[in-house]
Amino acid sequence: MMKEHTFEFHNGVEIPNIGFGTWQIPNEEAYEAVTMALKNGYTHIDTANGYHNEENVGKAVRAFDLPREDIFVTSKLPASIKGYDETLESFEETLSNLGMDYLDLYLIHAPWPWDEKGKDCTEGNIQSWKAMEKLYRDGKIRAIGVSNFSISDIQALIESCDIVPMANQIPFYIGRDQDELLAFCKKQDIVVEAYSPLATGEILNSPEIKEIAERTGVTPAQLCIRYCLEHETLPLPKSTHEERIIENKKIDFTISPEDMQRLDAIEDIRKK
């Protein structure tokens, strides 16, 4: 459920409506980047074991002058790890890397290993999910979810496990709306997180996006981030430049229905 400044998972836990993404930020740069984000009002930090930066992400969160409970931290089970015991072991590694004793959100990073996209790992995902249910019930994680999961991937968990995923983190940006998956998640009360809301920068030079942004009085990046929120998805913009980190959070405006219609009609630039 989307509120003014947060989304609410179906278990009642709230998550700030914009997260600071750390994908592709090397560990040696992560401390400064996360510190800049926290200094500029971000209280939702997203990382993953597979990003190889959990150590300095955790260090920045611990060093910042805010109580741990005021900062929402997400990490992810590596896509290659499938299985009950393996998941428990990897989670403990993540906690150790971060220097924390609990996580706010933990996700299965993908339904298949990155080098075997499309592989059927249904049984492994079910076992990993059951391990995450245990960690959730033990109070080690406040919310559990998935990432890059299709409808059938999620359905398999729902049919075999006790807890419906609370989040699904997927690529979502202007031109890649994933309408069917979005509708399914909404029906199941699963919060959709939008990673790569700027399509790693590839859509910022779109003439149409630039024209609408200029007329709205915002930057193309701000328009793209607001677009995600208008679709009730939670954007995770990422930058290592402070001026952009500040800019990406200033999205206190709305996009007109007419402009949303135009933006919805834009084709995925990555397919051209």
UniProtKB/TrEMBL annotation:
A GO molecular-function annotation: oxidoreductase activity, acting on the CH-OH group of donors, NAD or NADP as acceptor
Organism of provenance: Pisciglobus halotolerans
CDD domains membership: AKR_AKR1-5-like
Family: Belongs to the aldo/keto reductase family.
Protein name in UniProt: Aldo/keto reductase
Residue(s) at site: Lowers pKa of active site Tyr: K76
InterPro entries reported for this sequence: AKR (IPR020471), Aldo/ket_reductase_CS (IPR018170), NAD(P)_OxRdtase_dom_sf (IPR036812), NADP_OxRdtase_dom (IPR023210)
Active site: Y51 (proton donor)
Keyword annotations from UniProtKB, A to Z: NADP, Oxidoreductase
Residues noted as binding substrate in the record, renumbered to the chain: H109
Pfam families: Aldo_ket_red (PF00248)
